[in-house]
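yo

u said u wanted the structure for the complex thing, so here. seqs first:
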Amino acid sequence: MTKSNTSPRLFIDDDLAQGSTVSLDPAHAHYLGHVMRLQTGDGVRLFNGHDGEWLAIIEKMKKAGCLVSINEQLRSQENEAGPWLAFAPVKKTQTGFIVEKATELGASRLCPVITRRTNSARVNVDRFRARAIEASEQCGRLSVPDINAPEALEKFVAAWPSGRRLLLLDETGGGQPIAKALEGLRRPGGGLSSDCGFLSGPEGGFEDGELDALRKLDFVTAVGLGRRVLRAETAVLSALACWQAIIGEAE
Amino acid sequence: MTKSNTSPRLFIDDDLAQGSTVSLDPAHAHYLGHVMRLQTGDGVRLFNGHDGEWLAIIEKMKKAGCLVSINEQLRSQENEAGPWLAFAPVKKTQTGFIVEKATELGASRLCPVITRRTNSARVNVDRFRARAIEASEQCGRLSVPDINAPEALEKFVAAWPSGRRLLLLDETGGGQPIAKALEGLRRPGGGLSSDCGFLSGPEGGFEDGELDALRKLDFVTAVGLGRRVLRAETAVLSALACWQAIIGEAE
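structre next:
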């Protein structure tokens, strides 16, 4: 029986088109067969970031893989414009959390940034990508955020597209309130621009010299998140939640 | 040497007044002496929820406790009005996370609510309180959120003060956008009212009958957090972050 609303939802790399057949890898086969206990004839939802979401039917289930036929398009691909999130990796649990929650809240690109107080050994792009895929499958996105290779802060800002506003999460209290900064992203013709990014520092914050240099860049706006001292992962999540409520809903 | 900005910050139950002496319990003594390596003459910041924040000087440091003299008031007590957060406990890690982040984001009261799909064995009020104290110490609050005993959903709504708006985090998509709902909390004379609450459901959501009953209550407003399916802890944190940005900053 195929239950399209409750069927497992998987991100794959293959193209998806009516009537084609796709071979799922052993990890997906294990998940569908042994964790979800699906059998031949059962349904699974597939998306790949560009062909929308499809209901596929399991044709053959083996240890080495699983063959599915692409049956019916459930959703067409949508433009999932979202903010970019640049962040200094923190402890492993909290960094995984940032990747998961940023995905749920609609970030379109994740950029690990190495600051002077960042332990760069904590960056594992493959693990970030696996976590982002899992969160995308769960939250109903049709795309997975792009994940950049880690870059030093100086290189990162040098490569930043100058037309995209970068909201610096400034824990020193000098920034403008985030709601006001987001409202300020209105396009000249009305509507809000989703082409922005957030930059969040490491535990212990940016060094003073880093903050000074960032504030001088004309694409940077320093923003504040209230009077309390937020942990790095709380600050990131708060900023993205505000983006979603003030800009994402209005798209 | 006393460094008031970087000294450890602890919540205690005792009164705090200039010149008085306070005996800290063995757990605090262990933390200050063995974890932070403080000695006689070093400073520690103390708050109790009603006397502001004080610099205290360590007079005696022993295993059984630590004697401090209350030296100088660093901050006077402020009114930390914040929203109430009612939530169905989810998995242990995520529930701890909700308690921590809600404290950082300014919730003034946490109400564990048992819904039909909630595993009530997951509620440990003492552990919630310890986590909330730790987060309050870290984020610079002058108060710790009150934590209610767990209540069944029906009892909880029956006891809800009818003058306080309850924003229901409604994952079914029928609610109004949260930014709009929060803007709607303006007082007749201008300004926004912080006297509101949020109610968040368990994994798997509220049952349809629960949702129907909640929506019929005249103090309830159903709100949505966007198109994606947010995990329970993400929804809670998003709602509180929006409250902070739209109402908390304006207080």
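The radius of gyration of chain A is 20 Å. Chain A touches chain B through 30 residues (CB under 8 Å).
cya
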